[in-house]
Task: structure prediction
Amino acid sequence: MKKRLIFVAVAALIPATVLLAYNEFTSRTAIKEQVDAKALEENRKATSEIERLIEGAKGLLAATAAIPAVQQAATDPSACKDALEPLLPAVPWIRNLFVLDLSGRLICEPTGMPLGQSFADRSYFKEVISRNAFHIGEYTHSRLTDVAVLPLARPVQNKEGRTIAVLTSGIRLDWLNDRIRDRGLGQRGALTIADRNGVIIARNPLPERFVGTRIPDSFQHLINGPAEGVMDVMSQDGTPRVIAYSPTTRPPEGLYISVGISKADAYSGVNRQTFIAALSIALGSVIAMAAAWLAGGLIRRPVNRIVSVIKAWQEGAGSARTGFRANDGDVELVGEALDRMLDELEQRSLEIKRSEGQRDLLMRELAHRVKNTLTLVQAIANQTFRGKEPELTRSFAERLIALAGAYDVLLGEEFAGGDIRAIVTTALKPHLAREDGVVLSGEPHLLAPNIALSLSMIVHELATNATKYGALSTEQGAIQVSWIVERERVTLQWQERGGPPVAVPTIEGFGSKLVRRAFGPDAEASVEIKYLLSGVRCELQFNTGEVSAHGDVGTLAAS
Result:
């Protein structure tokens, strides 16, 4: 009852919960659209700033490459040095400016570093030589200054437009990281710049942790993708963010730029509203369930009384009653009806006990008379067969004993029927010289009394034949009896092994006839006997028959 009342209380809160869920969905959808748009806008701003920086560097290199002294660096390195030297203090974001010949050898440098070093292995040098155009390189440790830079290079061309050298510089990554830090981000926001290989060249926050490291493989597909985009990610620093990214295929080509907005900050307002609404519903639920619990307790008291009376009655307290009156309430009406029913059941129980006593007396009398009858039949047979063939007398006596054994099984079940295993075991017992001579397999199952008696006689005849001629006539022989019961029909197999060779009899004896004809019509039996070299195999199929709760004494006696 309490659970039902609580269920009703909870069901009443479902509309409010559904409304909260709908508002939550619409609010978060709107917030997501706003956050995605803001992230994309911030990314475009950052990309524009980096693009302006690259364009400035590109213009600086173009102007420097046009200086005659730079174009003549191969023949007059000193003049080239004098031309480059004033530029370094004026441009704080570059670490150095130097000129390489077409073989990649250093031919001009303003800081006094030794000339002649080879930079032919640098990718930016190879790209400028092959494309004959300005190129943004990858994250690099400078051989001249031993600091991390982003290389920038362009061809130096003479008046005829022929490339005669390569002018190289590099953006200081420490300056670039200071620049994006000063640019400012929202609380727990992030800005990342990486080269075309996914190596981070600038990041805020935590540049000291991430600069020089490669973006994880799970995000590599974004770096060289075809277009900008927005997605939700778990950043490397463990902060859930919404990031907008621009791949290296978009200007400034060769650089990947992403801006991330903290989801916790972006959704803080809607999260706060959701928490307040959920808390209100939770408090309402607690109050509603508490009220339902208290009301349920009042309702359950008479119900518990009824249940306790039923349990007490089941445990044997036949005098237990509720004592309710119908005019006290609806539940009390049920209690009064229960009391009347228990009174009737108690009266019926007394009558059943008297009937069972009479039935037990009848069963004992019947058992006594059946055994006396069998004893009388055996005495008459002994008198009749006296002086006749001993084998005939013994065979009749054994069959009579098998019949008596079957009756013992039925009497043990109070004539409700006989268990297959008990019937087979009892019929085989007189014929076994050793315990391992027979293997039984099958589930217990009751057979009707007439079916049980017929099966007992058949098993006795098969065992007698096995003792005389089959598997039980040798020390090595054995019998396996197995059965299965499906849809109240039994399939039983008798298989002999290890006995003397078996031959098909030329004349069917009385025992074989008994095996084939022992079952009555109601058994719908089929009998198949095969005389195999390995031993006799007999398969029986028959109905289990109707088994009553207390047996059918009249039917048994008549059978």
